[in-house]
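dumping this here so i dont lose it again. seq + smiles for flavin-adenine dinucleotide
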Amino acid sequence: METVPDVIVVGGGPCGSFAAFNLAKKSVNVTVFEEHAEIGVPSHCAGHLSIRGLKKLGMYPLPKDIVENVIYGVVFHSPCGESFSLRFPAPVTCSVNRVLFDKHLAKIAVNAGAHYFLRSKVESLAIESGRVCGVYVRQNGVTKKYAAKIVIDAEGVSSSLLRQAGLPTPVRSMIMTGVEAEVENVENVKRDMVEVFLGKEYAEGFFAWLIPQSNGCAKVGLASKTGNPQKLLQKLMLTHPVASEELCRGKITRLSFHPLSLGGPPSQTYSNGFLAVGDAASHIKPTTGGGVILGMNCAKIAADVAYMALKKGDTSSAFLNAYQKECDSMLGFDISVMQRLRKMLNTLNDRQVDKAIRFCKMINLDKSLQKVEEIDFQGKAILKLLRDPRMLAALSYFVRLYLFANI
Ligand SMILES: Cc1cc2nc3c(=O)[nH]c(=O)nc-3n(C[C@H](O)[C@H](O)[C@H](O)COP(=O)(O)OP(=O)(O)OC[C@H]3O[C@@H](n4cnc5c(N)ncnc54)[C@H](O)[C@@H]3O)c2cc1C
C-alpha cells in the first residue's frame, strides 16, 4: 500500500527544496513534485546571494563548485555614466551556479528523507469541502491524484495554485520580465565588484546588472516594466556609456527570460491545508529582485508551522495563519520600506538619477554604507543607519528629488 505523504511540495526550486529539507529533518513524510526532468534546469536567475543570508540559513560555506565568484561590493552607474562605488573590506555576496545550487538543496532534502518525483507537473489542487487535501499530477501522460495533509506551493511566479486556493495573487502591474545572459569576452571589468546600471532608457522600473565571474565571463541581465528585454539588453551592451565599454565585444552564450514579481507578498499566503512560499508568495526584495534568501527564510517558517500543524492534527487556515504572522514579523517592515524605496526610485527621471549618484559620491556615502551588515532585510539596515549624518543627508536629498520629480 502506498503511504500518504504528510506534506506535498509543488516545485523543486530553492524554496521548495528548503521547505522539504526542513520537514524531512523532522521526520515528516514529504514528497516534492518537480515538472522538469532535472532539478535547477532551466535556470533563470543570476544567483547573486548574500553570504550573511546564506550563513544565517546554515548554508554557507557551500560546496566549492557551486560558488562561481565572491564579491566585495557594488558600483552604481547612472544613465550618463556617473559612478558610485561601495566596497566592503571582506566579501559580502557570492555568485552561485543556480543549477548546482538547486541540485545541492534537493540533495540535502533527499538525504534528510524527502522523496522527489521529476517530470511531474502538478496540474491542480485537490480540494474537498474547502480544504486542500492533495494535488493532481501529470506523470508520463497520465494524471494521478496524490493526497496529503498539507500542500506547500513553491511553484514560482505563476500563481496558478494561489488562484485555485482562492487566495489573492501578486500585483500584476509590479510583475516585470527579466532577462539573464551569460556573456564571454567581457573587458575592463573589476573581477570582484557587481555593477548596477540605472536609467529608464535601459530598464524602466528596475535596473540592469553585471555580475563578473572568475573566468573572465559575466552574467548580465535586466528587468524592465516596458520594452522588449532582449532588445534593451542589446542596447545596454552597445550604447550605455560604461556598459558598452565592457560589453560591446561580448558574446552571449546563454539567454533566459523569466518574470520577476516586485510588488511584495499578497495579503494572504495560506488557506486550509495550503501554504505558499518563495516566488509563489512574492517573497522577493522590491529593490533588487533578490528572492532566494527571503524565500528560503519563509520556506523554513512554512516547514516549522506545517510540522506544528501536523503534530497538533490541525491543518486549518486558522492554525496555518501562524505562517503569515511569522513571515510578516520577519520581513513585513523590510518589504514595506523596500516598496517605498522602489516607488521613490521609479519616480526619478534619468537626469535626477545622474544627480543622485553624483551626490552620493560627493558626500562619500560609501563610508556610511560600509557599516551596513545586513543586505537582505534592508528596512532594518536603513533604520540602523538613520543617525548617520551622511545617510541623513542622502535621504533628505533623495526625498527632495522625489518630491520635485517630474515638476
Ligand atoms: C532574471 C532574474 C534574475 C534573478 N536574479 C536573482 C539573484 O541574483 N538573486 C536572488 O536572490 N534572486 C534572483 N532572482 C529571483 C529568484 O530567481 C527567485 O526569487 C527564486 O528562484 C525563487 O525560488 P522558488 O523556489 O520560489 O521558485 P523557482 O526557483 O521559480 O522554482 C520553482 C520550481 O517549481 C517548478 N514548478 C513550477 N510549476 C510547477 C508545477 N505545476 N508542478 C511541478 N513543478 C512546478 C519549476 O520547474 C521550478 O523548478 C532572479 C529572478 C530573475 C527573473
